[in-house]
């Protein structure tokens, strides 16, 4: 698990190889300033379709205190029908990644920034 307290940043997984390891469960909590929202833009996404997943939750530091906003699997084109930008309801985002025991792929890369609602572009969540 990783805890990120920052106004902006990048999450890349895996960080040091061409493909992510099998049997992984990873979690990142992103916390922005109180009163802000977090905008997440997915730049690259490639996992084993319908088997390895990235979940993006908003609203809390845990699954029980959050709402799942998106569950992604496959390629960016398969996983998202339109925009690759999400906006959380508050200053907290929880990301969880799961991989099974078989084929791995190149993983994902995303940027995040935290700002006040009027400072961020409003993009509908799915």
UniProtKB/TrEMBL annotation:
Residues 1-115 form the CUB domain. It comes from the Eukaryota. Keywords: Disulfide bond, Repeat. InterPro entries: CUB_dom, Sperma_CUB_dom_sf. PANTHER family: OVOCHYMASE-RELATED (PTHR24251). This is CUB domain-containing protein.
């Amino acid at each position: 698990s990783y805890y990120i307290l920052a106004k902006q940043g990048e999450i890349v997984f895996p960080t040091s190889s061409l493909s992510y390891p099998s049997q992984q469960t990873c979690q990142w909590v992103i916390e922005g300033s109180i009163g802000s929202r977090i905008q997440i833009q997915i730049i690259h996404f490639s996992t084993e379709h319908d088997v390895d997943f990235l979940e993006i939750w908003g609203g809390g530091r845990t699954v029980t205190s959050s709402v799942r906003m998106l569950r992604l699997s496959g390629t960016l084109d398969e996983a998202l029908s339109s925009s690759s930008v999400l906006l959380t309801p508050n200053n907290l985002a929880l990301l969880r990644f799961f991989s099974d025991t078989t084929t791995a792929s190149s993983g994902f890369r995303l940027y995040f920034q935290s700002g006040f609602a009027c400072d961020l572009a409003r993009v509908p969540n799915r």
